[in-house]
Structures are given as C-alpha cells and as structure tokens.
Amino acid sequence: MIISIGCDHAGFPYKEDIKKLLDEKGIEVLDFGTHSLESVDYPDFAHPTAAFVEQGLADLGILLCGSGNGVNMTANKHEGIRAALCWNKELAELARLHNNANMISIPVRFVEKETALEMVRVFVETEFEGGRHGKRVDKIKLNC
Q1: Where residue 12 sits, what CATH number does that domain have?
Q2: pLDDT per residue of the chain (144 residues) written in tens, 0 to 9
Q3: Are 53 and 81 spatial neighbours (Cβ–Cβ below 8 Å)?
Q4: Residue 61 burial class via C-beta count within 10 angstroms: exposed 0-12, middle 13-18, buried 19 and up
Q5: Which helix (H) or strand (E) is 13 found in, with range?
Q6: Which pTM was predicted?
Q7: Are strands 83-85 and 103-107 parallel, antiparallel or unpaired?
Q8: Fewest C-beta atoms under 10 Å: which of 20, 41, 72, 79?
Q9: Residue 90 falls within a domain, yes or no?
Q10: What domain range includes position 63?
C-alpha cells in the first residue's frame, strides 16, 4: 500500500507521528510536506497529495490542517477524490466502509494526537463495503 500525505504548518507535528505509524505497518508514504512549523498555504500541499491519489500513484491520502476544512475542500476539487473530514475513529471507519473515501482530512486543533493516529489506523485497515453503498458512491460524481 502507498499513502500520500500532506499538511500545513498546523498539521506538521501530527504528520511526523503518522508517518512513523505507517512505516511501522510497512506502508510506503509519499510526503508532500510541509516540513516545518513555518506558516504556509495549505492548498500548496493538499493539491499534490490529492493528485497522487487521483492518478492512482497512491492508494489513499491523508491531509492535516488546523480545522481540516481547508485541506478537505481543496482535495475535493479533484474529480477522483472523495475526502472525508473526520474527528473520531467511527467517522473514519464509516468514510471508508460506506463512502469509499480515498482521503481523510484531520483537524489537528480539534483532535488529540492519539485520536488522529487511531483514525489513520482505522482508515487504512477498513475496506469499502460496496453493495447498496456502491450505487450511492457512483452518484457522487457531478454529471451536468
């Protein structure tokens, strides 16, 4: 499995711990930055992280910022992305199970680091249920 990851300055400390977790699980990580606490613009990191998932160069993606909203909105501008803003492990599980989310956005100013790590564990281990949910996911794409 390959996971792309990106964040702004607020998400940087969590990103480093998430990378360690994924490495321990034997998962390859593509890190699109940022690489410090210096203030940056989240779209500069969310777009390439999402593009690698959209192009099939990564299986899943993880985005982090203060509220989670900015990176989530940015990622969802990509046609092939279904990014889910999650703040607990139950939402992370349902995002994969029922919505076939291929990216998770984590609001680091609103969740403890251990919660973020647990969400990532659940997100990467949960498979899409399909069935009736597949029909619904197929309707997400804009067809006008």
Answers
A1: 3.40.1400.10
A2: 999 999 999 999 999 999 999 999 999 999 999 999 999 999 999 999 999 999 999 999 999 999 999 999 999 999 999 999 999 999 999 999 999 999 999 999 999 999 999 999 999 999 998 888 888 888 788 776
A3: yes
A4: buried
A5: helix 12-24
A6: 0.95
A7: parallel
A8: 79
A9: yes
A10: 2-138
User: Residue 45 phi/psi, 5° resolution?
Assistant: -110, -30
Is the preceding peptide bond at 74 cis, omega within 30 degrees of 0?
no
Q: What confidence score (pLDDT) does residue 144 get?
A: 62
Positions marked catalytic: 65, 98
The span from the CA of 45 to the CA of 79, in Å, is 17
Would you state the structure tokens that stand for residue 56, as one six-digit string? Answer: 């099939």
Query: Looking at the domain assignment, is residue 104 inside a domain?
Result: yes
How many structural domains compose the chain? Answer: 1
CA distance readout (Å), 18 to 60, 98, 117, 142: 14, 24, 6, 32
Q: Is residue 38 part of a domain?
A: yes
CA 22 to each of CA 31, 56, 78, 114, 123: distance values in angstroms, whole numbers, following the listed order:
12, 19, 24, 14, 12
Length of the chain: 144
Q: List beta partners, residue 24.
A: none
